[in-house]
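In this section we walk through a basic example: taking a raw amino acid sequence and producing a predicted 3D structure, encoded as discrete structure tokens. The instruction is simple. Fold the sequence below.
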Amino acid sequence: MEIIAEGLAFPEGPVVMADGSIIVVEIMAGRVTRCWNGRTEVICETGGGPNGAAIGPDGALWVCNNGGMAHLGERGPGRIERNDLATGRCERVHESCDGAALHGPNDLVFDSTGRLWFTDLGSGHEDVKMVGGLYTVSSDGGTVTAVNRRSISYNGIGLSPDQRSVYVADTYQARVYRYDNRAEAQQPEWVATGIGPVGFDSLAVTEAGNICVAMVMGGGGVATVTPQGAVTQLSIPDDPYVTNIAFGGADMRDAYITLSGTGRLARMRWDEPGLKLAFNG
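The resulting token sequence is shown next.
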């Protein structure tokens, strides 16, 4: 494992760029940062708690912002943001669905039509836990649709290679669920559950259709889940908070992994190529 960057404030949401740089969010610092093999530069200050990130069909960086951490004294509205990579300008695009506020948008993915899919982890303060969900935004950016408003803790999200299935990871249950790629309310199909006392965070899909899910809480690592539900787990003992994985490189076998507890971005060779994303592959 090679360390690409360190000293980051809880990095997540790695985006592998065509120029070889890796863009991450720093949740605890409220900013978006570009990493260049040992050096970093801030792209924009988002405030709140930037989480998942992806390049959209317009070339901008779209970010799920959970609003910030209540225990750190900052808690704003959850929202979907658009960040102009050339100017650093950050704008809030979506903060609600059907008049109901988003609580903690967490991760997102675009399909090839430009439709956006994103998860909401929910939020918690004092003795109250707000539920999250799965949402989708039409390719013209105008309509936010709730696919499921009653999830426990949806986190990572990804599409199958044929884009017919949307996979989501539930953190507290350590489960992967499957939805149909339909913009309507529906119930999920259970795919698999993690092995042992772990939590599931963000995910990436491989070219063959396997779901690679970063693991937190019970021990850091990456779980590989087949579409049929078989599970294997790779331990990464250097950090208990392995939060994200993203694929890149000429053969798509470079896995970029965020070690959030120790503030590092790492790269390692994977045993199968990752799936190219629609707009930054």
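Looking at the output, two observations stand out. The chain has one domain: 2-269. The chain is about 0% helix and 55% strand. In the next section we compare this with other chains.
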